[in-house]
Amino acid sequence: MKAARIIAEAVIFLLLAASPMLATADVLVLEMPEAFFPDGLTVHAVRCGIENGYPNNTYAIKGTFSPGDLPYYGVNYNPETMQWVGQKEAWDFVQRRVTTDAKGKWSGWIWLRLESSVPKGALKFRFSVVPMEPVSNPGPTVSEWHDTRTLSISLTGNAGWISGHAWSDTARTVPLDGAVIIALSSDNRVLAAGPSQNSYIQDGEDHSNHGYFRLPVRTGSVAYLQARKATNNFYVPVYYQKPGPWMVQSGRQTLVDTTLWGDVDGDTIFRRADALAGLRMASGLVAGNMNTVTRGDVDPEGGDGLVTIADAALLLRRLSGL
Predict the structure, then answer these.
(1) CA pair distance 51, 316, nearest whole angstrom
(2) Would you say 111 and 78 are in contact if contact means Cβ atoms under 8 Å apart?
(3) Starting from the edge strand earliest in sequence, which strands make up the sheet with 159-165, in order?
(4) Labelling 121: which of 14, 140, 269, 313 has CA 20 to 30 A away?
(5) What CA–CA distance (Å, rounded) separates 213 from 165?
(6) By the 8 A CB rule, do 246 and 181 touch?
(7) What kind of fold does domain 24-149 have according to CATH?
(8) What b-and-e string marks burial along 254-271, b requiring 16 or more CB atoms within 10 Å of the CB?
(9) Quick one: pLDDT at residue 19?
(10) pTM across the whole model
(11) Mean pLDDT over residues 310-317, rounded?
């Protein structure tokens, strides 16, 4: 009798395990940057997917970083509520929700920030989902962990920025708004991915600066930039003022826009205000941002990542025609 009961229980277990209703989903990380900048502000994009899920069902989703043990890191953006949501927030209320199609599939880009408190160096990333129906759901279903690491953006670090404007036409008159801009290597590795403005993400960027993007990239060459629609991942044509490849230096900003020498304030004119802006930064009266430092760093040629008295003097000499 005991053997028969054990066999019966095993059969029931196998039948339940084979039931499609118990298979919450296959959860996938489809495209991911090779590294992330942990400043708590930079918006990163990761493309994730659900397969073999409940058809036409709502899932709560989030991405998670881990240094190998607890605590978990990563702040996810919920575009419906326009809020950034931490790892400890309840699945049922504030995490982003998506809906699978009739075949139980969904794929798309999720937006994340990585806190500055994360341990620096090697990290792992995974994608998690929870079905909102049935009510008696089995809890989160997670993808495999994927290896990644943190970036350090400083003159002695391992990364810099690539930034500028993306355009949807060859004449560069129509900015490419709200796209996912992807920086790729010559062997098609995803170096970085993030939004172009206006992204409608609460990211602290100037949303009126249409087509603008800024991506953190490890030091080295960016072979080309690609653009996708954030909603359906369709490839879209994208154009820049300066063709690639682009070389990214540690702690520096590489511009894909054509810039006028000495145009510190970025208004496309080199004039007295630019020289004064350089002098104020050099003397410590104002703190330059990444854009103004990049444009004001004119000495030595090729730059050294700083705006010094030598830069201010050269700006003044050129302004005077010397």
Answers:
(1) 62
(2) no
(3) 212-218, 159-165, 253-255
(4) 140
(5) 6
(6) no
(7) Immunoglobulin-like (2.60.40)
(8) bbbeeeeebbbbeeeebe
(9) 35
(10) 0.77
(11) 90
- pLDDT (0 to 100) of residue 98: 95
Write down the mean pLDDT value for the chain. 86
Q: Do 24-149 and 159-255 come out as alike in CATH topology?
A: yes
Q: Scanning the structure block, which residue is given the tokens 């196998």?
A: 14
CA 322 → CA 4, 104, 280, 313, 316, distances in Å? 100, 69, 21, 11, 9
Sign of CA dihedral 187, 106, 204, 265: positive
pLDDT in tens, 243-265: 789 999 999 888 888 666 778 88
pLDDT mean over 285-291? 81
Which residue is associated with the tokens 């954030």?
230
Phi, psi of 219 (to 5 degrees): -55, 130
Section 21-33 average pLDDT: 80
Q: Which structure tokens are listed for 312? A: 């201010």
Which fold, 159-255? Immunoglobulin-like (2.60.40)
pLDDT the model gives residue 7: 43
